[in-house]
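The following block was generated as part of the benchmark described in Methods. Ligand: zinc ion.
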Amino acid sequence: MNATDPANNAHAQPRRLAGDTLVFEADTTNSGYVRGVLIDTGPEPEAYTGWPVTDLLITHGHADHFSSAAALRESGARVVAPREEVSLVENPEVNIRGMFSWALPSDEMVTKLFRGEGCTVDAYSDEWHTSGVDVVPLPGHTLGHSGYLTADGVLFTGDAVYQKQIWKRHPLPYAIDPGLVRSSLRLIESLEFSWLVPAHGIPVERDEALEHIEFHIGRIDALTDRLHELLADAMTTEAAIAALSREAGLTDNPAQYWLAVTTVKAYLSDLLRQGRAEFFVRDHAGWWRAL
Ligand SMILES: [Zn+2]
């Protein structure tokens, strides 16, 4: 593509939210930008043409958050990711294998959000320091998921916060630990920020952000309580996945099912650790029952 190609101008310009902090809003994944530091990437590296990237900060190891990382690194950017996410960024196959208990799943079983080009990571988020951006660990969606808070008071939350309208499309959003998601949401409430930018959704000011956070916590609590009710009669792991997916209104398709497997297991494990459910093996199947 050459410089006079009109397609070069097709990308929306970033919006200035506060001070030097900008956001590239996209239907896929929003990116932040502050003085050469880019936070998460969408699928098109051309979107950042004219905005030099010295450092690329990745919130977590799902491929829809680092789609352009390899191309940007090729152009000289230093790639930074949370320590626990590095293996997923460098080799998306790790995530895909983890989803299927390390066996090899078929293509139709794997969400496109996990598929992408891996990228070498140059530094860990917790060891990376630059003036003007703080790293905020926000685990729960994944093990090492982290947000980034700029000195201008803009908090980029990756997939830690799902806004109300996103719940309509994703009624059982992926989480590996809903208890950790809840604590991360409480942590966000305690931070001083004026804008919150989720990776999927729209930038909102603090008051509105707090409403979305309350909604998210309310949904986690409702799903947890509903699962607990459903377990009044003991059921297998498979039956619990089906029951909660049905309650949430998920459609039947292989990729959606395999994402729900992880999420429902995470809710089951949360109930177990709260002492609200027990797990046992009967007839070579795993069973759960409410306590
Ligand atoms: Zn994600």
